[in-house]
Design a protein that fits this description.
single chain; 609 residues; alpha/beta; 7-stranded parallel β-sheet; globular
């Protein structure tokens, strides 16, 4: 379809969105309609002219927020060039409207404090120029006997004030010491809608109505709103997440996080046993952090501690690093114990620390190590109660070997640890409710949001050989590669055909060629019977879109796949951080350790070893 057809479809779908805007009882219908409209509207070419482009971005951003697709809009708004709006236009009407569009694009994008600060700067600039420029602008309109510019300005001033209020709230959780954010915004939007109606400004009235509902949803999604009045630890934690010195401040929660913590009541819940099943990349660790703070606060008098269980050494290290960073403002001590099947002297000293200020409150380890500790009587030796067990990758309960051990560990904790509560995190589990009931028959909760939200679009495709053109899909590709022989000696090329699946994936009818013949310089004889080489060739083509992850069937296979990327085309200069990692690998693993050389080709390797 061309843009004109898509724009017609988008406008038709938008009618359904506007039909639901003011009806609180149709919230789910509004979300579905906005998501469907956004999915089509995002494919449109940005209009020519900075003002028209910014207006389109604002509408697209509103649809994304209303449709729970904010993460997609963040990517779009970050990747495209920001419209160069005429913020210093001699025409006061153009200058004000450009500033209003600018601040709302920034609010919808929220790229850190840079955008929130820019909102305030734009509005201050308008206030400072208003007294000097506005009288002449209105005088001209009066000479023409045209009242519309006055009503336009009045509407736009209220939209600007609403943006200022919202930016303040998103950054600090209150406005001038007041927490009635919804009422403050409602007052501004009511005046904006009223002024545009009096001036018969239909488009501006519709924009005001759309922004009003969007602002309400942004307040509801705000990390301040979701976590308000839980406990003092949570308040300090949220302040640290939005702090200016944080590399990536968090102003809003993803839909699964918001629904789990607020709608499903995990934040403030008294359930002993909770199973949370959420899609990959939906922020399960973030949810766990709030539950950990709740448990620490609940058993603060007993100086209770939390066990965070992860299946591998790599995940234990990763979680320890993250928890130490995120809880540093709370002075909460996070320690880890190695997966080794013994408690060494250093670990024993750490576990039995007498100084309250130095005592660990969160212990990260593997299920096997915690099982060893409990069987060795370490809860009694520590002298403080285990109050919460967080199990990451809890679908491991279904595996033949480790699953049985994990099940026995949870049963032991449930029997012997008086204060223990449970939080099981998994991207997929069929019997979550049954497991929650098993751990606590009278106080359990199963939260399963694995079906109705995904963090991005997904295409599942099978790659096969065709001579063809490049392919540029949206967001995510899971590809199974197959090849056939080309015309010239040793030549082959790849194409993708998307697959219809039981999950929400994009499916297109065409088979689409990708890349040039013989990616990585491989020959037909090398790839025809090597899944690893086929995967590497497909990844080499797709890498031009960004980072590519190749999944292998064994740790040994990862090295063969990685080695295929060592070609001159992939060679790059290493920055200081990567050179530091390279030196560390050489010192720790020896000069022949293959990962040290692979870094120079932009390749990393991760497996259980």
């Amino acid at each position: 379809m061309d843009d004109e057809e898509i724009r017609f479809i988008t406008n038709a779908l938008e009618l359904q969105v506007f039909d639901c805007l003011d009806d609180e009882g149709r919230a789910e219908e509004l979300r579905d309609a906005a998501a469907e409209t956004f999915q089509i509207a995002r494919t449109l070419t940005s209009p020519e002219g900075p003002v028209a482009a910014a207006d389109w971005l604002v509408r697209l951003g509103c649809l994304a927020v209303l449709g729970d697709r904010s993460a997609d809009f963040h990517r779009i708004a970050t990747e495209i060039e920001f419209p160069a709006l005429p913020l210093d236009s001699p025409d006061w009407g153009v200058r004000v409207w450009s500033s209003v569009l600018d601040v709302w694009v920034r609010l919808l994008r929220k790229r850190g404090w840079e955008d929130l600060d820019a909102v305030h700067e734009r509005i201050v600039a308008i206030r400072e120029a208003q007294r000097a420029v506005e009288p002449g602008f209105l005088k001209e309109a009066e000479t023409r006997a045209d009242v519309r510019p006055a009503w336009e300005l009045m509407t736009q001033y209220h939209l600007a004030k609403a943006a200022e209020i919202l930016a303040t709230y998103l950054g600090q959780g209150s406005v001038d010491g007041h927490y009635d954010i919804r009422e403050q915004l409602e007052a501004q939007f009511d005046r904006a809608i009223g002024a545009s109606a009096r001036g018969q400004l239909i488009d501006l009235e519709n924009t005001s109505r759309l922004l009003a509902r969007t602002a309400r949803v942004m307040v509801d999604n705000s990390i301040w709103t979701v976590s308000r009045a839980v406990n003092s630890r949570v308040t300090v934690f949220v302040q640290s997440l939005t702090a200016r010195d944080r590399a990536r401040p968090i102003f809003e929660m993803l839909p699964p996080q918001r629904r789990t913590l607020r709608d499903e009541g995990l934040l403030g819940s008294s359930h002993r046993s909770v199973v949370v099943s959420l899609p990959t990349s939906s922020g399960k660790t973030f949810i766990a952090e709030f539950r950990i703070l709740q448990a620490l606060n609940q058993f603060d008098h007993e100086n209770g501690w939390v066990a965070y269980l992860a299946p591998t050494r790599a995940l234990v290290n990763q979680l320890t690093t993250r928890l130490r960073r995120d809880f540093s403002h709370l002075e909460t001590v996070v320690e880890k114990v190695s997966p080794a099947l013994e408690v060494d002297g250093l670990e024993a000293d750490m576990l039995m620390e007498d100084d309250n200020a130095q005592q660990f409150r969160i212990l990260v380890t593997t299920p096997e190590k915690l099982d060893l500790m409990l069987r060795g009587g370490w809860e009694e030796k520590i002298g403080r109660p285990l109050t919460l067990v967080v199990v990451d990758e809890a679908h491991g309960l279904g595996s033949n070997n480790r699953g049985i051990k994990l099940e026995l560990l949870l049963a032991t904790i449930n029997r012997e640890c008086r204060y223990a509560q449970f939080l099981l995190l998994t991207p997929f589990i069929r019997n979550g409710a049954e497991i929650a009931r098993w751990l606590s028959p009278d106080s359990n909760k199963n939260i399963d949001l694995g079906v109705d939200w995904t963090p991005n679009d997904r295409v599942v495709a099978i790659a096969r050989v065709e001579r063809g053109h490049a392919w540029t899909p949206n967001d995510r590709v899971v590809a199974i590669a197959r090849v056939e022989r080309g015309h010239a000696r040793g030549e082959f090329s790849l194409s993708l055909r998307s697959q219809h699946t039981s999950r929400n994936t994009l499916d297109i009818p065409e088979q689409v060629g990708i890349g040039e013949p013989r990616p990585l310089g491989l020959a037909w004889s090398k790839v025809k019977s090597s899944p690893g080489k086929i995967a590497a060739a497909t990844a080499q083509v797709l890498r031009k879109r960004g980072t590519v992850i190749v999944l292998a069937d064994s740790p040994k296979a990862t090295w063969g796949i990685a080695d295929a990327f060592k070609i001159d085309e992939n060679k790059r200069a290493l920055d200081d951080d990567l050179r530091h990692v390279q030196r560390f690998l050489v010192d720790e693993m020896g000069p022949d350790f293959p990962l040290a050389g692979l870094l120079a080709y932009g390749v990393g390797v991760h497996h259980a070893g």
